[in-house]
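Wait, can you check?
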Amino acid sequence: MQNDKNNNDYFDRYTDAEPIQIGLKEYAKVIGAGLFSVVVLMYLRMNSVYSLYHKLSDSCFLIATIFIFVGIISYANQDGFFDSAGFTFRKFIEIKRIFKSSTDKGEKLSYYKYKESKDKKRGRGFKHHYLVVGGVFLLAAILFLYLNKM
């Protein structure tokens, strides 16, 4: 019976959180950052011997790869995939401080409390705008590559 109570507490953490609202403002920020990056990459490759479409394709593909990677990492973080690594890093820093100062200051943080605080901060939902914008830039890269071959 105790195990059922623990499982219910685990799922209640995720259902009590507020959903994340992603609006046009977040999409505009990501699209603006992507377009700015494409322009910067085009400027850096201005003296290249490749055609305009080839440069655009390379720039869009690079930005798409970065955005899709950030989206995948964001999705993994939303599920708490990196919580144990973050807790271990925090404990490592805490141990370094203990050896440095030789006095134990502060309260010991358990993994359960750390996980609870991360779950409260994390909220509920998935920020998918990086994947969507990355997919659009990937389609643009494919389009420019096709136009380069013509």
User: Anything to note?
Assistant: The helical segments are 2-15, 24-44, 52-78, 83-101, 111-122, 129-149.
